Amino acid sequence: MEMNEAQVAELGKQVGAVAQKRMDDVQTALEKQIKQIEEQYKADGKISADAIKGLSDLQGTVKAIEDEFGQLKTRINRDGLPTGGNGAERQKALENLIYDQLKELEAKGDFSQENQTGSKRYAVKGGHAALHQKAVGVFTSGNLTDGASNPAVSARDIRQTVVTNPSPSIHVRNLLNSSVMTQNYLEYPQFVGGEGEPGYQVNQGDTKAQIDYDFIMVPVRPRTIAAWTRVSRQALNDISWLANFFSTQMMLDLLKKEDKELLNGTGVNSIKGIIPSAADYTPTDAGYNTLFEYLVDGIAQLEAKDYAANGIVMHPLDYARLLVYKTTTGEFNHPGLVFGGTDRSLLTFNGTPIYKLNQIAQGKAVVGDWNRAELLIREGINFGLFYEDQDNVTKNLVTLRIEEEIALAVYHPQAFLDMDITAVTTGV
């Protein structure tokens, strides 16, 4: 059952209203019939048999309506509203009381019935109330709709944090020494070589060995890396997580750009990066043609110049090539002499860690002594909000900006080797 006691009582009132209207209609028809009889009698002094029959039929209809609704009224006046049992049983009894009368009147056209699956619906014509009888079922969330038969959302949970885009676990700046740059222009002496070497003074008075060194002055200008966006003040006020998301994500994006420039910058209106500054790698032995041989040989070449190779940078997909190394018979085999160190989460070659970065091109690798370059910071990473930018005031906008001003000094270019590993294999 779908109606409570108040609704059923209201339906009873509407049933009574329908009965009253029907009686009023019959009364009007009766008066009209009497008037016709009077006019006919005045005209010819006779009353036709058809007129008498019509009058009798109307009187019978009035009596039937009075009897039908009188029975309903009598039952309610005599017995009152159902009171026995629990609430559901009382409601059912009350609805059945009205429902019985509706079934009796259905044939007379005062009520319409719509058959539905598992239920019957009686509606008063022209009225606003309806009585439903439907099969009892289990209440589920499907019973709660938005009025258009679509499931309604009964409860809403809104998270106040956003998972930012992924970022690398390490950045190029983590491999470099860094210092503050106090001016917007810097020159540093770069050692490029020399002649001679120390020797013995065999006899007293002999001329001692002479040596000399050569330097060039390398100019460095800091470069600004920046980004900005604009957002409405209302959005910042209404969306609690928005400001934190912008500051975090914009910093991550800036660091990715910084990684790219510190590695690959051309030096034309930009930083000159490690790779353009590095020496090109040439295998010591022309027979070297595997990635393992290249990396071991590169480390050895730096050590032969007294540099300490302390990091190898390569693309994650090239890193993976090392992990899937197999023997000629198909077994995975990581040579113990190549993979050293105690931290197995970080692949190493003779103790030199390998770092994965997406900002280096696939097919490239850099072996280096990263202490021989330095990140110069003129202005550190700075995030700011500006309410008075362009037409922000008139449009109620806020400008969000992130920027830094940095330079790179590669003091020893020969301490870095730029390797092309595109064509080399990993197998033996």
UniProtKB/TrEMBL annotation:
Entry's localization field: Virion
Pfam families linked: Phage_capsid (PF05065)
Coiled-coil region list: none
Gene3D superfamilies (UniProt xref): hypothetical protein PF0899 domain, Major capsid protein gp5
Domain of life: Bacteria
Chain ranges of the Phage capsid-like C-terminal domain: 155-417
UniProt cross-references to SUPFAM superfamilies, sorted A to Z: Major capsid protein gp5 (SSF56563)
Official protein name in the record: Phage major capsid protein
Organism: Dyadobacter chenwenxiniae
